[in-house]
């Protein structure tokens, strides 16, 4: 399914010179189902991440015919030989500032 707000959000990232990638995101409400086999299967289907909330927000916004702008950032990784905690729970202030800047600019352009 195409996300109609993706091009507009991508242009905001470009305007702010914030690196980004786009792609499908797998959704699950059960972290224990994020097994190596399922992770590999989702990667083979082109998924670049997993999330627990965005799909429901997007489904409601599409049903209500309202725009929804969502972006994710990587905190940890499950696709290697072991869990990589990354920045989980320890996001630096510079990353917080970048995410806030993107969010505020997105809101300002609506």
Protein model, in words:
It is built from four helices and two strands; from the N terminus they run αβαβαα. By secondary structure, the protein is mostly helical. The protein has one domain. Helix 2 links the parallel strand 1 and strand 2. The chain is globular. It starts with 5 loop residues before the first helix and ends with a helix. The mean pLDDT is 85.
Total of helices: 4
Residues in helix, %: 40-55%
Widest sheet: strand ordering: 1-2
What are the secondary-structure elements, in order, as H or E?
A: HEHEHH
Largest sheet: 2 strands, parallel
Number of domains: 1
Which percent band covers the strand fraction?
5-15%
Shape descriptor: globular
Termini separation: 22 Å
Number of E-type strands:
2
In short:
The protein is mainly α and 110 residues long. 42% of the residues lie in helices and 5% in strands. The protein has 4 helices and 2 strands.
Q: What's the SSE blueprint?
A:
Blueprint: H1 6-15, E1 25-27, H2 36-44, E2 49-51, H3 54-64, H4 93-108
Parallel strand pairs: 1-2
Fill in the keyword field for this structure.
110 residues
């Amino acid at each position: 399914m195409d996300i109609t707000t993706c091009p507009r959000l991508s242009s905001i990232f470009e305007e702010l010179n914030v690196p980004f990638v786009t792609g499908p995101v797998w959704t699950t409400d059960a972290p224990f189902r994020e097994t190596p086999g399922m992770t590999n299967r989702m990667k083979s289907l082109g998924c670049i991440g997993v999330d627990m909330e965005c799909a429901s927000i997007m489904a409601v916004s599409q049903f209500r015919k309202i725009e929804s702008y969502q972006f994710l950032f990587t905190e940890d990784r499950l696709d290697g030989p072991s869990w990589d905690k990354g920045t989980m729970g320890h996001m630096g202030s510079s990353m917080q500032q970048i995410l806030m800047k993107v969010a505020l600019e997105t809101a300002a352009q609506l």
